[in-house]
Amino acid sequence: MEDDVRPIPLSALQHMLFCPRQCALIHLEQQWAENRYTAEGRILHERADHLGHERRRGIHTAMALPLASEALGLTGVADVVEFDESREPAVVRPIEYKRGRPNAHRADEVQLCAQALCLEDMLNVRVEYGALYYGKTRRRKSVAFDDELRALTLRVIAETRALFDNNRTPPAIYEPKRCDHCSLVDACQPQVMGKQRSAGRWLERQIQSLDE
User: Fold this and answer.
1) 77-121 pLDDT per residue, tens
2) Can you give the pLDDT at residue 46?
3) Which position among 4, 99, 117, 152 has the lowest Cβ density within 10 Å, counted as fewest Cβ atoms?
4) How far apart are CA 15 and CA 54, in angstroms?
């Protein structure tokens, strides 16, 4: 990766797939706000966010493991990476902690798959599976890094790279189910900005009709 190319944080991929504007506000404009949902997520991560190692029953667990892929221009930290040393070669599994429940969209899975791609780059191994641990269900959801998920992850990486290179925040599009629970709703103002865009498009059409 060239020295002047900004690395993409792994968390940006989850933000990008969930909402490109949210991704830009956080990673380009450096805006952040906390609400109940982000606070619950932060508390859930507290144990995993302390760098450390432990071994139990042939499983070597690394917590807060730094990750990077020069080829993909990614950097970040894995909450937990398990190395199953009972098998030869050892089986590697990234584990990501999330506060809520499994989502209909695949943003969490993309973030986890990107961690797997970093591990493959760093360790020269094939990572087949990982898991998402959700605080609401207190269970792991196994994630297979199949061809479909890998292709989606590479696409999101490319789209995030384009967003970073363009260095422009996308316009707001108000979607209640997504926006009303976002901690950045006040900074984003999707309802206000969306109305301004609609009014701007209406005015442009009126001007064009006068010119015809």
Assistant:
1) 999 999 998 887 889 999 999 887 877 789 999 999 999 999 999
2) 56
3) 4
4) 31
Cis previous bond, 66, omega within 30: no
* CB atoms closer than 10 angstroms to residue 22: 24
pLDDT score of 162 more than 70: yes
**CA gap 132, 134 in Å, rounded:** 6
Q: What is the rounded CA–CA span in Å between residue 188 and residue 28?
A: 13
The DSSP output letter for 150 is H
Mean pLDDT of 35-41: 47
Residue 125, pLDDT score: 94
Over range 108-137, report the average pLDDT.
Answer: 95
| Number of CB atoms found within 10 A of residue 210's CB | 7
* Cβ pair 22, 14 in contact under 8 A: no
CA-CA-CA-CA torsion sign (4, 94, 106, 77): negative
Do 172 and 84 form a contact (C-beta atoms < 8 A)?
no
Give dist(CA 95, CA 119) in Å, integer. Answer: 12
Q: How far apart are CA 157 and CA 17, in angstroms?
A: 10
Beta bridge partners of 60: 55, 83
Q: 89 Cβ partners below 8 Å, 6+ apart? A: 125
